[in-house]
């Protein structure tokens, strides 16, 4: 009898031991995206639904788009990241460098705004942004200034010493602002001479500081240094949540389309699961939650936004008809020369 009990106990222990690896086999999948508000919104409200439905852990690898692309290029043949979010300009470079794998054909792709589908479905927009004009509402009230209305307001002499401009060589917001002002002076992506020629005598005198990214804007608004600067509705919403007195304006000439695109990383360890995650993130339920949690503007036409976002942005279908679209293939072909010229001529 004692022997039987011993055998039974051993068998039970073996069964328990066998169960442990099965439990531990729950997969981990990695996604690269911006840290801060975006990471918080996705980790708190969006990704848990995918984890629960697929018995998988999704780990965010935070970083700027350029940082994430650098990681992918350094491990191109054996990447550990499965899916990435990149700003559209950086994503165009990533696709051209063979980093991305074509998205599987799926019904969710047909739910996206047409401009959110990249050529050959090598990626797709997961968040819609628009670079427009943000302004310091407290300062404007004190000065008795009406809200700005045009990209050319950055050249208005009354704003001397109150314009903060992100560096066009390191920031998409700064580059968008420069290209739109260049366009209004008769230029284009193929011709940036008007922008570089006229900048120092128009916008330049108004700029109190060129900043590499938007991180410093919060502080500069509170000190009264920043009165006017390029930014997106989501960026403005993040500042408002912190009690910073700012507002967003869509310029009369139109804001600039700014997409955060996703792509499935080529050669990733689990392409099937990566495709499944990509489709989930493009879905209406996921994008609705991202809008609620982090003011992420959806690219899926079936997703909904909170009432506060709808009130601030207006009808999204109408708004997307007014956005200006830049040609990233042309920009990336000339970006190195532009960056060098900006750094030596504008920020010298």
TrEMBL record:
MF GO annotations: thiamine binding; thiamine pyrophosphate binding
CDD domains linked: PBP2_polyamine_RpCGA009
GO biological process terms on file: thiamine transport
Annotated signal peptide: 1-24
GO cellular component, one term: outer membrane-bounded periplasmic space
Keyword list, A-Z: Signal
A Pfam cross-reference name: SBP_bac_8
Record PANTHER family: ABC TRANSPORTER SUBSTRATE-BINDING PROTEIN (PTHR30006:SF2), THIAMINE-BINDING PERIPLASMIC PROTEIN-RELATED (PTHR30006)
Name of the protein in question: ABC transporter substrate-binding protein
Annotated source species: Trinickia violacea
């Amino acid at each position: 009898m004692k022997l039987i009990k011993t055998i039974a106990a051993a068998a039970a222990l073996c069964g328990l031991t066998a169960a442990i690896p099965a439990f531990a086999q729950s997969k981990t999948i990695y996604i690269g995206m911006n840290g801060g508000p975006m990471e918080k919104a996705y980790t708190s409200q969006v990704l848990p639904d995918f984890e629960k439905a697929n018995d998988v852990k999704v780990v965010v690898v935070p970083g700027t788009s350029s940082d994430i692309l650098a990681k992918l290029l350094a491990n191109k043949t054996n990447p550990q990241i499965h899916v990435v979010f990149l700003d559209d300009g950086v994503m165009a470079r990533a696709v051209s460098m063979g980093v991305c794998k074509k998205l599987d054909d799926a019904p969710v792709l047909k739910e996206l705004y047409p401009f959110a589908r990249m050529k050959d479905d090598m990626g797709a927009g997961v968040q819609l942004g628009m670079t427009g004009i943000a302004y310091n509402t407290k300062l404007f009230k004190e000065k008795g200034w009406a809200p700005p209305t045009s990209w050319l307001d950055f050249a208005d002499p009354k704003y001397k010493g109150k314009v903060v401009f992100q560096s066009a060589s390191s920031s998409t917001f700064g580059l968008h602002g420069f290209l739109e002002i260049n366009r209004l002076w008769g230029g284009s992506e193929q011709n940036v001479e008007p922008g570089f020629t006229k900048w120092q005598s128009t916008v330049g005198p108004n700029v109190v500081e060129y900043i590499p990214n938007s991180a410093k804007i919060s502080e500069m608004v509170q000190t009264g240094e920043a009165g006017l600067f390029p930014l997106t509705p989501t960026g403005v919403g993040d500042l408002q949540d912190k009690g910073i007195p700012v507002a967003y304006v869509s310029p009369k000439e139109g804001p600039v389309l700014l997409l955060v695109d996703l792509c499935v990383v080529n050669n990733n360890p689990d392409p099937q699961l990566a495709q499944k995650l990509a489709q989930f993130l493009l879905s209406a339920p996921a994008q609705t939650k991202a809008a609620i949690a982090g003011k992420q503007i959806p690219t899926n036409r079936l997703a909904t936004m909170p009432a506060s976002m709808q009130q601030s942005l207006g009808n999204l279908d109408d708004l997307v008809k007014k956005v200006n679209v830049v040609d990233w293939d042309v920009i990336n072909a000339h970006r190195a020369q532009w960056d060098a010229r900006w750094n030596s001529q504008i920020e010298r």
